[in-house]
Amino acid sequence: MLFFIVFVLFSVLILRLGIVQIVYGEDYKREIERTEDITVNNPVPRGKMFDRKGKTIVDNVPQYAITYTYQGASQSEMLEVAERLAKLIEVKPDRVQVREKKDYWIIKNPERADEKITEEERMQFKAKKLDSDDIYNLKLKRISENELEELSAQDLEILAIFREFNSGYALTPQIVKNKDVTAEEFAKVSENLQFLPGVDTTTDWERLYAYGNTLKTVLGKVTDSSEGIPKEQLDYYLARDYNRNDRVGKSYIEMQYEEVLHGQKAKVKKITDKAGNVLSTEVVSEGQRGKDLVLTVDMDLQLEVEKIIEEELLAAKKEPGTALLDRAFVVLMDPNTGEVLTMAGKWLVKDKETGKSEMQDFALGNITSSYNVGSAVKGATILTGYQSGVIQPGSYFYDAPIKIKGTPEKASWKNFGNLNDIRALRVSSNVYMFRTAISIGGGRYEYNQPIRLNSQAFNTIRQSFNQFGLGTRTGIDLPNEQIGYKGPLAKPGFLLDLVIGQYDTYTPMQLAQYVSTIANGGYRIQPRMVKEIRAPLMDNDKLGPVIEEIQPTILNRINLEDGWIENVHEGFRQVMQHPEGTAYRKFGNAPYLPAGKTGTAQAFYDGPERKNYEFPPEVMNLSLVAYAPYNNPEVAMAVVVPWAYQGDSGHTANYEIGRRVLDAYFHLKNKQPDSTSNQPTENNDESQESLQEESQN
């Protein structure tokens, strides 16, 4: 019977093996040999940035990288790979959080972790009063600091790697290490890839700024691999075939031109067996780094202008009453195309530890900070008067102090008597602008009597100023541009302040657009930082072919009649080239024949030291707008020196900076020695008085 039973069992077994092998053999064979094709997208270097002369501003530095691509492995399998990888590379555990240490401690000590749950809590779990998450959180809560200290340095290194493994997304390479990967580490990992499923070695990149901090705030930043796509922009980028951990531009030019700079990813097909082991790798597409940007900026000029700002800012700080002076700005623009040739800003920042001030880049302040700029806006005031029909070219007003009942007396820096529009610009008459504003408002002026003005006067003037770029976005191809601050009250006295630039605030970039609009005959052109988009080349030192040349964009054309703009041009020319002009002493001998307008504004300090004062201190802001040559403008300039000094008299850093900057522009253009900007052509009483014009407003 026993033999018979054994015989039957073997017969059944043989029959079953026959069925498996003969009937289903091919099916099982196919299942065993089954493979999967997995396509992985690998990031490529971003496009580079060049200046207008082809000099590299932003580049990519290649660096070794070790990545991990999640392909469905279990946590225990990933931990095993992390342990193997930790023996081959060194990873700093500085980013490991306490919670992650506790999770790892539980994985390492499952039995001790279970002991932290009481019998009563186990009963509640069985009764479904507590769920598995509640039990796990109780374990986490009861792990002591002493128990966490049991984790060795090797454990923390493994945890740091395991943390990066878990930070990735399915089929998306996650950077495990790309900083300071040694050639030895790279070689060891490459040799042992068959024992490290999901791990790979590749070449990554890092942004290199060839000119250090110069323009760095404007160039922008790129997220790192740990940041990936910012949460607020996740949907936007995922819809454009980005991976969650892709590095993207997160500010200014890097962000504004992200889709140009990002590049086309390399696609790699990995063939795996049923167990997930990689059998072979096939390159589907090599990918291509991002397209290159040629900026409008001339870096030689940019560096020279920054040097001038630093020197003049430090020189001005030696003058009395300059405790609050800490910054200065310069914008140079082609008035005919809107190309920004230079966008420079510097500020003195106190080190919190040492208390000493250090000079830092603040180019971004040209579009993100605004100030009262004073008489520099008077060209717009005159043209607004023409457009409103209250004055005509050649119209006269008598320059004498103005007094509105209940308000302080307002006057020019001296009484000029009877003067027309051109001379009003030349000597910077406040009263001429006041009388123009009163006429725009439909008021009738009598000394020390109240004035009733049309409620639309503020809107009329502001809308006209907007046509020049004052008080509105310039449209520059950078995000987060500010428009300035509008004074909130609509009283007659403030209307008079508005037309001499002492009520609303404007950015240096707005001033540059405004003076460019005057220089080119009335076309408000959008400023831009990018000149061309170029195809990338393998040769890093050369520019590829032009893909797109950014054309000038005219935002609006100011409605002008014959003679209007010509009168303002002449007034601006005389400011710098007539002995009575307010800037003549500094610019009268300039060989490039500049035209422009000076400005000083009484303002209230609102900078970083504001917290040290009960009430905001009164300060003087200095400004200067100019273009040259006056008869065929090729460059326009705006200079702003906020909070320049306190008191009745001070320095003229706006003049010093402006002259040296224009000298530098024409010197670099013509390759000729700088002109002697410090030698006045004449030292008469009128030119000496003109330097004090604005500070005595």
Fill in the keyword field for this structure.
697 residues; alpha+beta; Penicillin-binding protein 2a (Domain 2); 6-stranded antiparallel beta sheet; 35% helix; disordered C terminus
Query: How many domains make up the 3D coordinates?
Result: 3
CATH superfamily (homologous) name of the largest domain: DD-peptidase/beta-lactamase superfamily
Distance between the termini: 126 Å
Average pLDDT reading: 89
Please tell me the CATH architecture of the largest domain by its name: 3-Layer(aba) Sandwich
Radius of gyration: 35 Å
Low-confidence stretches: 672-697
Largest sheet: 7 strands, mixed
Strand percent estimate: 15-25%
How would you portray this structure in words?
InterPro entries: Beta-lactam/transpept (IPR050515), Beta-lactam/transpept-like (IPR012338), PBP_dimer (IPR005311), PBP_dimer_sf (IPR036138), PCN-bd_Tpept (IPR001460). It is a single-pass membrane protein. Residues 670-697 are annotated as: Disordered. Keywords: Cell membrane, Cell shape, Cell wall biogenesis/degradation, Membrane, Peptidoglycan synthesis, Transmembrane, Transmembrane helix. This is serine-type D-Ala-D-Ala carboxypeptidase. This protein is of the alpha+beta class and 697 residues long. The chain has 3 domains: 33-70 and 170-189 and 199-295, Penicillin-binding protein 2a (Domain 2); 71-167, Arc Repressor Mutant, subunit A, CATH 1.10.10; 299-537 and 552-696, DD-peptidase/beta-lactamase superfamily (Beta-lactamase, 3-Layer(aba) Sandwich), CATH 3.40.710. 35% of the residues lie in helices and 20% in strands. It contains 26 helices and 20 strands. The strands form 5 sheets. Strands 2, 3, 4, 5, 8, 15 and 16 form a 7-stranded mixed sheet that branches. Strands 11-10-9-20-19-18 form a 6-stranded antiparallel sheet. A hairpin with a 4-residue loop joins β6 (266-273) and β7. The protein is elongated, with a radius of gyration of 35 Å. 42% of the residues are buried. Residues 672-697 have low confidence and may be disordered.
